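Case study.
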Amino acid sequence: MKIIVTLKQVVDPLTPVSALKVDGARRKILGPPDTPPVINGYDEQALEAALRIKEEWRDGECQVIALSAGTGFDLDVMKRAFAAGADELVLIEDTALDTWDVSFIVRTLAAAIKQLGGADLVLCGRQASDWDNAQAPLMLAELLGLPCLTLARRVEVKGQHVQVERVLSDGIQVMEANLPAVVTVTSELGELRYPPMRARLQAAKRRPRTMTLKELGVTATPPAAVEMLDLSLLQIERDCQFVKGASEAEAGRMLAELLIGGGFIKPQQA
Amino acid sequence: MSGILIFAETDDGTILPNFWEQVSAARQVADPLGGGLRVAVQGSQIKDASDALKSGAEQVYVTNDARLGEPWSEAHLETFTALCRELQPELIILPRTLLGMEIAARLAQRLDAGLAQDVMTMQLAEGKLTVTRPVFGGAASATLRLTRPPWIIVPRTGAFAPAEPLSTPKGELVARQANLVDDALKTRRISRTRQTSKINLERARVIISGGRGLGGPEPFQLLHEIAERMGAVVGASRPPCDSGWVDSGMQVGLTGKTVSPEVYIAVGISGATQHMTGCSSSRVIVAINQDPDAPIFRMATYGVVGDWKQVLPGFCEALA
Ligand SMILES: Cc1cc2nc3c(=O)[nH]c(=O)nc-3n(C[C@H](O)[C@H](O)[C@H](O)COP(=O)(O)OP(=O)(O)OC[C@H]3O[C@@H](n4cnc5c(N)ncnc54)[C@H](O)[C@@H]3O)c2cc1C
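After joint prediction, the assembly is written out as follows.
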């Protein structure tokens, strides 16, 4: 069993807007200097899904490879994949990969997966927290000609199939796909395990494998189907009117009265 | 390549209300684009396909098939791809639902199309489509240019006011076959469990949402009680959904529902951009949070700094 998990390095999505900056020329959002990037949360959860599957196999029978295409990698951050239990970490680093052009990224990932000899299962996060596109995994599946199941909170390999529990907007759907397949993971699956100190120390000593765009034979082919013309931060602020009372319960009562008085809410007749 | 094609998603054989927002987006560019409007309705035992004619579409293609009665992306995608290849539309508009977003991405790869998800505004000039959309969890806005057709767009829920249905539609209904071969499909449905009560957060007038600050599933009972007293619907931030305190269908935000009620009351929610992007267009935002520095107070109209365990009982009392 060979599982490839795609990871994207992103600016921490919990950075307050006031601490973000836009690099207008490169149309990029920058986090505060000196704060490290993070692995996209949903991708970490995809890695967790892979590690849970790996636990079902005997030692050496299931291999988990973490794969990332990007630029300016923070190795301490990316190596957390090792610490959590990935067998290998493959990085494709190139400034050209710092792009909005999803199709270029996807072609790069597809070429790398082929170079790695393919996979039985490709696990990805449902979307990346920078551009919020939720496109790459789906386009990757199309490019590789693989079936794709999305939004999994549980992923189970059963013989030649993968079965997933999908979180829909009104319930749960269980679906199955033939292997090899691409599966995207959602946050209900749970957080990536926190590795013990020993694993973290060992991970620090390991080296990722690197691949280049040249080796993979992938080039950007402008013009991209979608170009970014402008990027700006949105500061939606309102002037908050604080409701204060003699006690917190009193403040709650006053708040309700204020909303009723303003015609915003209406007590229902029992 | 010409004209606009709208994918009308159905649920239980009924077209989703998003459809009229898609029509509204289509009408914005229909004149300069030319080539007319067509609609694809896919589902099982579809009841109201003729309503789609009121969009002004010349043709409404109706594909009725038991396999299209569920959000089974492969079945829908194969069916819709075949129609797109036949009709060669210049612009395709899908609804911002889990199914719509997924079909959009895979179709973009198949048709080598430019795709923009979560579109707030759009403009057609000199043969290029320019759109704006939120990115980075709603912390920023990007202006994108889709360089060459075909174009695929997914309008943000609530960004385009629902279009008015025409009183005298002229188009025709065209029945189509799904042409799905079971053995050729690579994915299969095993089972589906749907929430018994259909809560409609997206159309609610008043919403009261709970966050991680509620600490567990039980306090949501109190939110339900309060909601009942003021005719509101209960929502949640992501942590209560991830922890299984409440159904994921209640999640508001970037990866949950986009809502725009008259009043949005957030209890024990810090105000992360990924949450606020789903409710920032509410007319009034009310925050109850014990941390006076919580970011939500910067986006709220009214706020109470306090422990919900104290504040909510007082609030509830005033509704009696
Ligand atoms: C790509 C991506 C997509 C995401 N999508 C979504 C989404 O769709 N929806 C969503 O909600 N989040 C989403 N998130 C997560 C989001 O970033 C935040 O982590 C989440 O919204 C935080 O939820 P919260 O405010 O309930 O919890 P917290 O941030 O932990 O805040 C809890 C709040 O409760 C307050 N509190 C605690 N105890 C009490 C008390 N007794 N009385 C009053 N107040 C109290 C605290 O002061 C605190 O402000 C997404 C994140 C990413 C990266």
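Observations recorded in class. Residues A 13-14, 41, 129; B 137, 211-213, 237-239, 251-256, 268-270, 272, 274-275, 278, 289-291, 294, 307-309 surround flavin-adenine dinucleotide (CB under 6 Å). The first helix of chain B runs from residue 18 to 33. We will return to this complex in the next lecture.
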